[in-house]
Write a structure and sequence with these properties.
Blueprint: E1 4-5, E2 15-16, H1 29-45, E3 48-52, E4 56-72, E5 77-85
Parallel strand pairs: 1-3, 2-4
Antiparallel strand pairs: 3-4, 4-5
Length: about 100
């Protein structure tokens, strides 16, 4: 699994995100292009993402199908990717 870094600070002490989380980022074209390439590599390599910032780590296992939504109004284009959580199917045993 490729680790996607949102910043370049390599310090420790990050907290793993559990439960709900929301954060908005603004990136320049070069930084965003790099982020999207790494995201594409992670999606292609399997069903697990791990996003990191200076303060947190956000691991997520997702299903094979990813929803892509494109919205355009007069002044804005929005492209949204929605990853649904992969459900543990558990196992069946006898005796």
């Amino acid at each position: 699994m490729i680790k996607m870094e949102i910043s370049t600070d390599k310090s420790g002490g990050r907290k793993t995100v559990e439960g709900n989380f929301s954060k908005e980022f603004y990136m320049g074209r070069e930084e965003l292009s790099d982020f999207l390439r790494k995201l594409a590599d992670e999606i292609e390599s399997g069903n697990e993402l791990e996003l990191k910032s200076d303060e947190w780590i956000l691991p997520f296992k997702f299903r094979d199908k990813i929803e892509v939504e494109i919205d355009k109004d007069h002044d804005e284009l929005e492209i949204e990717l929605e990853f649904e959580k992969m459900e543990d199917k558990g196992s069946l045993t006898i005796g």
